[in-house]
Amino acid sequence: MKISSFNKPKTLVPKGVATFFPEGVLLRRKIEQAVFSVFFRAGYQEVITPLFEYLDVFSQTSGEELLDRAYKFVDRATGRIMVLCPDVTPQIGRMAATWLANYPRPLRLCYSSKLFRHAEEYGGQEREILQMGAEQIGLGDAQADAEMILLAIQVLKKLKIKSKIVLGQTAFIRGILKPFESNQALFREILSAIARKEILHLSSLLKKSSVGTGFKKQVLALPGLLGGEEVLKSAELIARDPLCVAGLKRLCEVVEILTQKGFKEQLLIDLSEVRGFDYYTGIVFEIFADGRNAACGVNVELGGGGRYDHLLEKFGAPSPSIGFALNIEHVQRVKEKSS
Questions:
Q1: Alpha-carbon distance 230 to 53, whole Å?
Q2: Over 60: is that where the pLDDT of 295 sits?
Q3: In degrees to the nearest 10, what's the CA dihedral of 309, 285, 247, 111?
Q4: pTM score of the predicted model
C-alpha cells in the first residue's frame, strides 16, 4: 500500500512521489529480490551509480526532451550545473568506458536506482521512479539482442506477470527517414506524427517536403507496419536504403531466435516505434503486462530498452551495448491488482 498525497497540509507530499506503508514495502522488496535473482543467475553483476551528477554526463548522451525534464541545481563548491539522475544508462556507459575499461568483455551489469524526471502535475506521471535494469556491453550481434529480450521475459516470468514484447528497429526507420533529415524542424514533426500514428497529419507534413513521392509513400507506410511476422515481409517491400535492409535483417534474426526459444506468441512487431530515436541505434523493445493478467485488464507498460552502440564513444571507448529497464512502480501496481 502506498500514499501519493493527502489534502490535509500535514500529510501533503509533492505530486508524482510516493510514500509506502509496511505492506507496500514488503511487496516492493519481494519484487526487487525476484528481479535481482534473475539478473544474478544470468551472470549480471550489480553496480550502484550516483544519485546526482554534473549535467555534462547527460548533455552529451541524452536527447533534449530528457534534459528538459531533469531537475537541475548549482553545485555550491564548483558553480557547475548538476542534475538529479534522470537516466542510469549514461552513468553505466561512463563507468564501463573509464573505470571498468580494462575489465574483460562482455560486461554484464545490473542496478536498482531512483530516477527523477519533471512531469506536469495534471499528467498523473511519476516524478520519482524506481528503476531496475541490466546492461550488456561488448557484444553487437543478434544473439546479444535476443539475450537481453529473453532476460526481460525471464524476469516477468519470475514475477508471475504475463508479458508482451513489442519489437522495433530504429535503424530501419533511420533509413526510411534519411531523405528528410535536411529540414530538422520538419523531421521532428514527422517523427512525432509517426509515433502517434497520426496518418492524416503525417500526410499533411509530407506535402511540405520536396522529397520524391516514392520516399513519401515509404514514410506513410510506417504506421501500418504493426503486427506479427507478416510485418517483416511488408517491410521488405519498402526497404531500399542499406541501413533499412541491414536493420530489417537483424530484426528478422532476433525474431527467429526468440521464436525458436518458444516465445513467438509474446512478440508484437511495430516498425513505427521511434522510442528513444536520438539514443538507440538498432533493436528497441517495450515490455507490457499482458491484459490477461488477473484483474489487470489492460496492457500496462512496464519498461523497455534497446541497442545504443554509440553511447560509450562519448566517453572515449566505443563499444556495442544493449540494455533494458523496468519501472518497478508499474510492476508493483500490476502485482497489487493481480493479488
A1: 45
A2: no
A3: 20
A4: 0.91
d(Cα 163, Cα 152) in Å, to the nearest integer?
Answer: 9
Q: Are 186 and 209 in contact (CB under 8 A)?
A: yes
The per-residue DSSP string of 231-265 comes to HHHHHHTT--SHHHHHHHHHHHHHHHHHHHTT-GG
Mean confidence (pLDDT) of the chain: 91
Phi, psi (deg, nearest 5) at residue 207:
-65, -20
Nearest to 43 by CA among 150, 131, 163: 150
> Which positions ≥6 away from 146 have C-beta within 8 Å?
254, 257, 258, 261
170 phi, psi to nearest 5 deg:
-65, -30
Q: Read off the pLDDT of residues 58-85 as tens digits, 9 standing for 90 and up.
A: 888 877 778 888 999 999 999 999 999 9
Domains of the chain in start order, with CATH, are 2-49+88-338 (3.30.930.10)
CB atoms within 10 A of CB 77: 6
HSE-CB of 219 using CA atoms within 13 angstroms: 31
Nearest partner of 39 among 301, 324, 289, judged by Cα: 324
Dig out the grid coordinates for 270 from the structure. 511495430
Whether residue 239 has pLDDT greater than 60: yes
C-alpha 158/C-alpha 168 separation (Å) is 25
CA distance 154 to 147: 10
Place of cell 544508462: 89
> pLDDT at position 1, please?
55
Q: Say which residues have a Cβ less than 8 Å from residue 101's Cβ, sequence separation at least 6.
A: 317
CB 18 within 8 A of CB 327: no
